[in-house]
Inverse folding.
């Protein structure tokens, strides 16, 4: 297996080799979706101080990811969708029940 730096130096056609190596290193595409989704959730919540913005962004982003990612990487979009739906349920619970 080649080094990431060697793959990067070979040109733009080898970007998928670099990404697949990172998928395997962190536990698969579902774990990558959890990391991306939670990072966006925390960052947008700090920015807006409300859960509405991160919820809408995560749910819409998952729809875009479902349409653009190949079939093998659909778990990334599913993880982002689950985090967005959990944030929405938390917001509804906090606003109307708590």
């Amino acid at each position: 297996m080649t080094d990431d730096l060697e793959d990067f130096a070979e040109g733009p056609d080898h970007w998928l080799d670099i990404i697949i190596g990172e998928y395997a290193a962190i536990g698969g595409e579902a774990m990558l979706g959890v990391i991306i989704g939670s990072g966006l959730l925390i960052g947008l919540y700090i920015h807006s101080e409300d859960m509405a913005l991160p919820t809408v962004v995560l749910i819409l982003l998952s729809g875009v990811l479902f349409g653009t990612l190949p079939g093998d990487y659909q778990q990334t979009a599913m993880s982002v969708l689950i985090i967005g739906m959990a944030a929405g349920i938390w917001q509804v619970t906090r606003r109307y029940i708590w």
The first helix runs from residue 4 to 9. The two ends are 53 Å apart (CA to CA). The mean pLDDT is 83. The chain has one domain: 29-97.
